[in-house]
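Course assignment 3, question 2. Fill in each field.
Student: A.L.
Task: Predict the tertiary structure for the chain below.
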Amino acid sequence: AKPGVKVRSYELNSAQAQSALAKVNEYRSRHYTFSAQSRQCTTFATDVLRAANVNSGLSGQLRPADLYRKV
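Answer field:
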């Protein structure tokens, strides 16, 4: 990762991976609009984790800075 960039990995089984990819494809097909006011990158990240049923310790809508601190 680049300096200052935090990365967290999760081990997924096959079903979780398929669920995560389905959520990614949903985002691609619906062409969601992202903004600082409503749908941020953190929304995408937590939605994919939730779809995969990953207990990430992240919940609700997080501001990017809050997610960064929690990762």
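Instructor remarks: The two ends are 14 Å apart (CA to CA). The chain has three helices and no strands.
Grade: pending
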